[in-house]
Write a structure and sequence with these properties.
- The protein has 459 residues and is an all-alpha fold.
- The chain folds into 3 domains: 197 residues, Up-down Bundle (Growth Hormone, Chain: A); 59 residues; 197 residues, Up-down Bundle (Growth Hormone, Chain: A).
- It is 81% helix and 0% strand.
- The protein contains 18 helices and no strands.
- The two termini are 34 Å apart.
- 53% of the residues are buried.
- The mean pLDDT is 83.
- It is a multi-pass membrane protein.
- Pfam families: MFS_1.
- Its main location: membrane.
- It is found in: Membrane.
- This is Drug resistance transporter, EmrB/QacA subfamily.
């Protein structure tokens, strides 16, 4: 008998809270034109509204996982909800664009405390035969967020019964966070490591700075025409990551507290899982290029744009729910997910290249891609977290979240740069077709990594 009788109710509130993190990414993108008008903001400032959230989230998410290990996942999850609630209110009532950017930074802090607690709690609260279903339910929220963010954003921006416009995309977070705070309080125990340690503040500082040095140049490189110092910062970030790793290893040898146990990064199957997760999250490029293509080239409004992404989002939502019902090995499911991503994006590229306007064929191809995304996400999360002991579940889930976020930022930036650059030479349709094709082509790397992972599983 499981010692956590309310684990399924707790999972509902955990996933609802974690749902806010990806939702805020998708929904805010829809509101940028309204923010530009309201604050007379520059494109650079609007870029910061989006980027600062992702930057803070990626840089702090492993710290959020470690805090959950040390002080209890329930406490840190609730703390994250409170930060997210207050920062959402601050965003909605921002007097100027600078205040909004700062408030978005704190939203990223709150989000970084949420997601790691879910995966780590699943590892602790659920038995091994229940974990696949629990992880699948958690993974489905990402697909739901991709649909809800586009549709809800478009709907809220068209409401005329209040004096608010873009503010509504932040105010919608308020009832959800309050509900989750109350629900988690009554359904979840405060599980944490039995052995308490101090926080590795120096390690946290080194990791945060190195990740910022890696992510910022990728985001802003195009703005500064990929000047030499952009690459210098990237190289410095890589070197600082090495310094962080050596510092953690040295601290562990001296029995000092560490942020990430170096043995996790020496666990090759786990690292290979992180690489596959990194590359399949290049799919974020679709959500940057597709809305822009629809609105700027085809002149569709936000609601029409939101509806266009539904085939991908529905499949992304259904995929994780189908995984527990399919009696195949995780290795086979990874190949199926990657194959669907490659096929779906390749066909989408072909249809757009010849038809320009989305068609029924485009909907089917996007559905296939979304299904692939929905299948591979829970399989990879479950496979990666199962490789690590329960005592290190928070650190492992933090690293998984970092792989997701950095993959999304890197993929979105690279795919977006190719798309915007190609528009000048080939026009919108061919530029979008190329960008989408690249998303599918990148997944071939994941196929080869999975072959290596399979060899290690047999050893």
């Amino acid at each position: 008998m499981n010692i956590y009788p309310k684990r399924w109710q707790a999972l509902g509130y955990l996933t609802a809270g974690a749902f806010l993190s990806p939702l805020d990414y998708f929904i805010v993108n829809m509101a940028l034109p309204s923010m530009k008008k309201a604050f007379n903001a520059s494109d650079y400032q609007l870029q910061l509204v989006v980027a600062i959230y992702g930057l803070t989230y990626a840089a702090l998410v492993v710290c959020g996982g470690r805090l959950g290990d040390l002080y209890g996942r329930k406490k840190i999850f609730i703390l994250g909800l409170y930060i997210f609630l207050l920062s959402s209110l601050a965003c909605a009532f921002s007097p100027d664009i600078t205040f909004l950017i700062i408030a978005r930074l704190f939203q990223g802090v709150g989000a970084s405390f949420l997601a790691p607690q879910v995966l780590a709690s699943i590892r602790v609260l659920f038995s091994s035969h229940e974990q696949p279903k629990a992880v699948s339910l958690f993974s489905s929220v990402f697909g739901l967020a991709s649909v809800a963010g586009q549709l809800l954003g478009g709907f809220l921006l068209h409401l005329h019964w209040t004096t608010f416009s873009w503010e509504m995309v932040f105010l919608v977070n308020v009832p959800v966070t309050i509900l989750c705070i109350i629900g988690i309080h009554f359904t979840m125990d405060n599980n944490y490591e039995e052995k308490r340690q101090n926080i590795d503040f120096i390690g946290a500082f080194l990791l945060i700075i190195s990740l910022l040095m890696l992510i910022c140049p990728i985001i802003f490189g195009r703005k500064y025409h990929w000047a030499w110092w952009i690459f210098a910062i990237l190289l410095s970030g890589l070197l600082l990551l090495l310094v962080f790793y050596r510092y953690e290893a040295k601290s562990l040898r001296k029995n000092k507290p560490v942020l990430i146990d170096p043995s996790l990064l020496q666990h090759r199957p786990f690292v290979l899982c992180l690489l596959i997760i990194f590359f399949y999250n290049f799919t974020s490029g679709l959500f940057i290029c597709y809305p822009y293509y629809l609105q700027q080239f085809l002149h569709q409004d936000p609601i029409e744009t939101g509806l266009a992404i539904i085939p991908y989002g529905i499949a992304f939502f259904l995929g994780p729910l189908l995984v527990p019902r399919i009696n195949l090995s995780s290795d086979t499911m990874i190949y199926i997910g990657l194959s669907l991503l490659i096929t779906g994006f390749s066909l989408t590229s072909l249809f757009i290249n010849f038809q320009e306007k989305p068609s029924f064929g485009t909907d089917i191809s996007l559905f296939l891609a979304g299904l692939g995304h929905g299948i591979i996400m829970p399989v990879m999360m479950r496979k990666a977290i199962a490789l690590i002991s329960k005592e290190k579940a928070g650190q492992a889930s933090g690293l998984i979240s970092i792989s997701i976020q950095i993959g999304s930022v890197t993929g979105g930036t690279i795919i977006g740069t190719v798309f915007f650059s190609a528009i000048e030479y080939w026009g919108f349709p061919k530029a979008f077709a190329l960008a989408v094709f690249m998303i599918g082509a990148v997944q071939i790397v994941g196929v080869f990594i999975n072959k290596t992972l399979l060899k290690h599983s047999k050893d």
